[in-house]
Amino acid sequence: MPTVSVKRDLLFQALGRTYTDEEFDELCFEFGLELDEITSEKEIISKEQGSIKAAGASDVVLYKIDAPANRYDLLCLEGLVRGLQVFKERIKAPVYKRVMPDGKIQKLIITEETAKIRPFAVAAVLRNIKFTKGRYDSFIELQEKLHQNICRKRALVAIGTHDLDTLSGPFTYTAKRPSDIKFKPLNKTKEYTACELMNIYKTDNHLKQYLHIIENKPLYPVIYDSNGVVLSMPPIINGDHSRITVNTRNVFIECTGTDFTKAKIVLDIIVTMFSEYCEKQFTVEAAEVVFPNGKSYTFPELAYRKEIVRADLINKKVGIRETPENLAKLLTRMYLKSEVIGDGNQIEIEIPPTRADIIHACDIVEDAAIAYGYNNIQMTLPKTYTIANQFPLNKLTELLRHDMAAAGFTEVLTFALCSQEDIADKLGVDISATKAVHISNPKTAEFQVARTTLLPGLLKTIAANRKMPLPLKLFEISDIVIKDSNTDVGAKNYRHLCAVYYNKNPGFEIIHGLLDRIMQLLDVPPGEDKAGYVIRASEGPAFFPGRCAEIFARGQSIGKLGVLHPDVITKFELTMPCSSLEINIEPFL
Amino acid sequence: MADGPVAELLLRRLEASDGGLDSADLAAELGVEHQAVVGAVKSLQALGKVIEAELRSTKRWELTSEGEEIAQEGSHEARVFRSIPPEGLAQSELMRLPSGKVGFSKAMSNKWIRVDKSTADGPRVFRVVDSMEDDVQRRLQMVQWGQAEKLGEKERSELRKRKLLAEVTLKTYWVSKGSAFSTSISKQETELSPEMISSGSWRDRPFKPYNFLAQGVLPDSGHLHPLLKVRSQFRQIFLEMGFTEMPTDNFIESSFWNFDALFQPQQHPARDQHDTFFLRDPAEALQLPMDYVQRVKRTHSQGGYGSQGYKYTWKLDEARKNLLRTHTTSASARVLYRLAQKKPFTPAKYFSIDRVFRNETLDATHLAEFHQIEGVVADHGLTLGHLMGILREFFSKLGITQLRFKPAYNPYTEPSMEVFSYHPGLKKWVEVGNSGVFRPEMLLPMGLPENVSVIAWGLSLERPTMIKYGINNIRELVGHKVNLQMVYDSPLCRLDAKPRPPPTQEAA
Questions:
Q1: Among B222, B348, B409, beta carbon nearest to A404
Q2: Residues 6 or more apart from B495 whose CB is under 8 A from it?
Q3: Cβ distance A497 to A558 under 8 Å?
Q4: Are B287 and A488 an interchain contact pair (Cβ–Cβ within 8 Å)?
Q5: Which residues of B touch A416 (CB under 8 A)?
Q6: Which residues in chain A touch residue B238, judged by CB atoms under 8 angstroms apart?
Q7: What's the Cα-to-Cα distance from A440 to each of B15, B284, B359, rounded to whole Å?
Q8: Cα torsion for A541, A542, A545, A548, to the nearest 10°?
Q9: Of A541, B102, B378, B484, which is most buried with the most CB atoms under 10 A?
Q10: Contacts of residue B266 in chain A, CB cutoff 8 Å?
C-alpha cells in the first residue's frame, strides 16, 4: 500500500477545517484510507539517523496516510483533499479539460529506434502554472510516488517534467548508442556521455535501482528538442538544461514506457492533479505525439467514460435498499458524477480520468457501498445450505497426530523450505538423487529447495533444544515436495510422517515399536501378505550400516527406519545416538 | 517411639517442665544444633495437637570473628602500642605488623603514640604515654559475657561500624504441651501398602499427612504443537459452519493459477522476484487448461464480461512460470474452476488452512512461510451484508465480537474490506483479516453463472496464535528454533474462552 505523507496543517487548511487526530483517523477509515503514523521530519530523521542529525530538522506535524494501491489519484495532497472534499460534499468534482494552445501545438516525434527498448511516449503541457514551495514539493513527490507504484519503479513508465520556456519544439524521442548520448544531467556541473553516467550512478543510492532497465541494451532512449538539447534519458535522468524550479510557469511533461495504457494513466493523473494551479484552473494544454508509423495522437486523453448500472444491481450486490436517486448521490460523493436516467432504475455514471481504477460495474458497486458506509450495512447470514466434508488426507493426519502424541511423541512444525545441504550433503545423498524442486531466486541458502524429507527439520529442532532433558521424542506429519512430470506443474506433495528418538542409547526398539503402533492404528496387521506390513534389512547413506530397514505395507515400500549414521548426527550438530522413522501415509487413505 | 532422639528428649523435657521451654535453651542444654531442635518441633507439630509451638524472634548482639579475636588479643591500637619499645620503632617496620595500618591511625588519634620525622633513618614511632586502657577489648568482652545491654547505644554503634559487633535475630520456638500431649508417639506410616491392606493393619496405624502444597509429578507424555492446535480449532469452526475442506496439498503452483486466474495483472508487484519464490526446476508448468487460459488472456488484455480489462500484452510464458504459492487462493481458484464445470451449479462453502510462501524481508513477525486460513462461499445473490454476517459468526466463534469493516483494495476482490476487531488489551482496533467479493473478471472466465457471487475471507494462522499464547517472536513458534519447553507447557486451545487474567503484581 503506498503511503503519502502530508503536512497536517496544510491538509487542514486545504480541507477548510481542523480535525483531532482521532476524528481524522475516523474519516480515513470510513473512506478506505489509513492514518498510519503521526510524525515530523525531525522525528523521522532522529529515528533513522539519531537525534544529533535531526537537530535542525522541521518539527511540522506530518500525517502518513496509506492509500489503496489502485487509487493513483490519492497519492498527493491535492488529490487527497479533492477526494475527501467531494466525499464530504463540500465541493463538486472539478471537470478536467484538454485545450488547444493559442499558438502552435507542442509536438513529440517518436522514431522507430525506440521500438525495441521503450516504444511508447505521451506528453502534455501545463500552461501558466503558479508553483509555491509547497506545491512544487508536492509535484516532485507525486512523480516519485507514481514511479514507485503504477510505473513499477520506472520499468513500465518514466516521467520527465521540463521548463518549456527553456526549450524549443518539436521534440524527438529516439534511441541512440550510449556513447553517442552526451549531456549535462540534473544536479551535475558538466556533460557526461551515457556510458559515463551509468557508471557514476552505480553508486547513487536513488538512481542505481533503475539502471538495470536499460543497462544491457545496445541503444538508450533519449529525448531532444529541435536544437539538440537533451530533455531526458528515460528512465534514468533528466537533463539539467530544462530543469523546473518554483518559478517555472510552463511545464512540458513527457511519459515514456513499455505499457501504453499505464503511460496514459500516469499523464492523466499528473495533469489532473496539478492543473489546479494553472491560470485557467483544471485545463491542460494538448500536445501531439507522432508515432513511427506516421500516425499522430493528441494527449492527454482526459477521457470521461459513461457506464450505466441498474440501481437494483447495486442494492442486490451490497445488500441494501436505497432509491436510485440516493445511490446516484452516494456515487457522486465518490468522485463518480451520477444521475438517474431511463426507466428510473438506471444510473448513468461518469467515470473521470482520475479514476482509472474503475474498470467494471463491481468497482462502482464498491464505491456505492463505501459511500453508504460499510458499517451501516445490515449483516445477514447467507442461506447457503451445505454439508461439510473434510479433505480425507487432512482427516487422517488429524487423527494420527493425536495418537502420536498419545504414544509419547511431541509434535514439531518445521519449514518446508531449506538448503540443499539439509536434504542432501548432510544426509550423505547427492542433490541430483533427491528429485527436489529448486528455487531460482532465494535470498539466502535457507530457501534453496523444498524439502524432500521431514528428517532434517526434526534433527535441527533437536539441535536447537539440546538443553532439554533426554530422551527427546519428536514427530511431524506434513508435506514434502518431489518433482513429478505426471502433474500439471511438474511437482507433487506427499504427506509424510517422521519420528525421531534421541537419547544416550539409539533406541531402535522404541522407533520400531512406534511403527508397530502406527500400523496398529492404521489397522494394518504384521505379516508378509498383501494386507500386512513387514520390515526388511536395507541400507541407506543416512543410516548406520546394518541398522536400517525398509518398510513395506500393503505391497509397497512406504519408507525407512533405523539408527542414524554418526556422520549424519555430527553434521546436524548432535552428539547422541538417534533413531528415526519416515513414511508416506498416503497409501493408507 | 518418637520421631528421632531429639524429639523424644524434647517430649521428656516438656513433660518435666512447667509451662514450656525455649528451643534455643534446649539446644544449648542438649548440646545439639538449634536446627536439630527446630526439625524435631516441626515433625511433632505435624502429628497434630501433641505440642504447641509459638515462633518467637529475639535479637541479640554477637561478636564478629574479628570482634572475637580482639576480645582475646586486644584491639589493633593496643597491639601497636605494646609492640613499640621505649627506644621507638621505625614506622616502616611498624606498618608491616599484622595490626599495623589500622592500629597506627587509631593509636595516633588516641594520642598514645607520636611520629618523629627528624630521625636519620626515616620516621620513627615513639610511645607518648606509659600505659593505656584498652576500652575496645573490654567492651567486646562484656558482650561476650552477655552484658551487651550494659554498653551505651553510642558505644555499640561504634563497634558495629568497625564490624566487630553485629546484631542477629534468632528465631526460636516456645514449646508447650498440646491438648493431645503424650511422650509415647508412635512412628507414622508414609504410604498405604498392599500388606497393610491384606493384613488390615492400616486400621491401627497413623499415617503421615500429605503436603498438599507440593507440586505433583508431571506425567510422561507427548504434546501437540500449539500452532497446530489452533489449526485444529479453526478446522473445527469451519466444519461446524458447514464448510468443506479444499485440497491444498500442492505447494508448487503455476503463475497462472496463483495470479492470472485471479485477474492479477502480469506486471503486478506481487509477481516480482522480490516478493515471490520462483522455481528454477521445474521452471514451467507442463499443462494448463488452454480453453480457460484463452478466456483469462482475453479478459486481462482486452476486457470482456463487462470489464475494461487491463489493456496490456498478456504473455503465456509469464503464466507458465512455476512458483511456491503465495496464497491458498490459488487452491480456491482451482476448486471454483472445478465447481464451474459442474452443471447445474450447486452452492458451495469451502475452507482451507495451509502453508504459503513469500520471498519477503524477514523480521520478528514475518517468516518466508506461514499458514493462511481461507473461507469461501459461492451462491446465487450473495451480498456484502452476507459477507459481513458470516464474518460476524466466524469471529464470534473465536471470541471476537466487536468488528469493524474498512474499505480496502485487493486485486481479485471488489468490493474488498479489511476486518478490524477491538483489542481490549492494546485499547485499539487491530486488523484481523481481509475479505471481499471475487471479481467477475475472475469468476466468469471460469464458467460460473453470472448471477453467482463468491464471497471470501482470509487471515493468517500465526497472528491469532501469537496473540493467544502471548508470543512476540514468530521463530519461537514456528520452525526448528522452537522452544520445546513452550510446546510441552502450552495449554489447550479454546479460542472462545476468556483469556487468562494477567498475573497481579505482587508486592516485593
A1: B222
A2: B230, B233, B234, B237, B397, B398, B399, B464, B468
A3: no
A4: yes
A5: 251, 355, 357, 369
A6: 388
A7: 90, 12, 11
A8: -110
A9: B378
A10: none
Which CATH superfamily, name and number, covers A97-299?
Phenylalanyl-trna Synthetase, Chain B, domain 3 (3.50.40.10)
Give how far B460 is from chain A: nearest CA, Å: 16
Other CB atoms within a 10 A radius of the CB of residue A275 amount to 25
Q: Which residue of B has its CA nearest to A378?
A: B385
* Interchain proximity B392–A379, CB inside 8 Å: yes
For domain A3-72, is the CATH number 3.30.56.10?
yes
Q: For chain A, what is the radius of gyration of the CA atoms?
A: 33
Domain A392-588: give its CATH code.
Answer: 3.30.930.10
Output the pLDDT for position B507.
43
Instruction: Write the residue in B252, B388, B479 that is nearest to A491 by C-beta.
Output: B252
Give Cα A79 to chain centroid, integer Å: 23
- Alpha-carbon distance A10 to A15, whole Å? 9
Alpha carbon dihedral B411, B412, B417, B420, in 10-degree steps, equals -80
Q: Is the pLDDT of residue B109 over 60?
A: yes
pLDDT at site B186: 65
Number of residues that this document lists for chain A: 589
Which residues fall within 8 angstroms of residue B245, CB to CB, at 6 or more apart?
Answer: A388, A389, A390, A391, A394, B235, B238, B239, B350, B351, B352
Whole-Å CA distances, B110 to A204, B89, B103, B115, B159: 80, 18, 10, 13, 16
Give the β-pairing of A61-66 and A3-7. Answer: antiparallel
CA-based nearest residue to A175, from A235, A244, A240, A106: A235
State yes or no: pLDDT of B310 exceeds 80: yes
Q: Which CATH architecture has domain A304-310+327-353?
A: 2-Layer Sandwich (3.30)
Q: Using an 8 Å CB-CB cutoff, list chain B residues near A408.
A: 220-222
User: What residues does CATH 3.50.40.10 cover in chain A?
Assistant: 97-299
Q: Crossing angle, helix B76-83 and helix B100-109, to 10 degrees?
A: 90
Nearest to A442 by CA among B252, B273, B256, B322: B273
Q: Is A32 on the interface with B (CB under 8 A)?
A: yes
Confidence of residue B506 (pLDDT cuts 50, 70, 90): very low
Q: pTM value?
A: 0.80
CA dihedral B412, B416, B419, B420 (to 10 degrees): 120
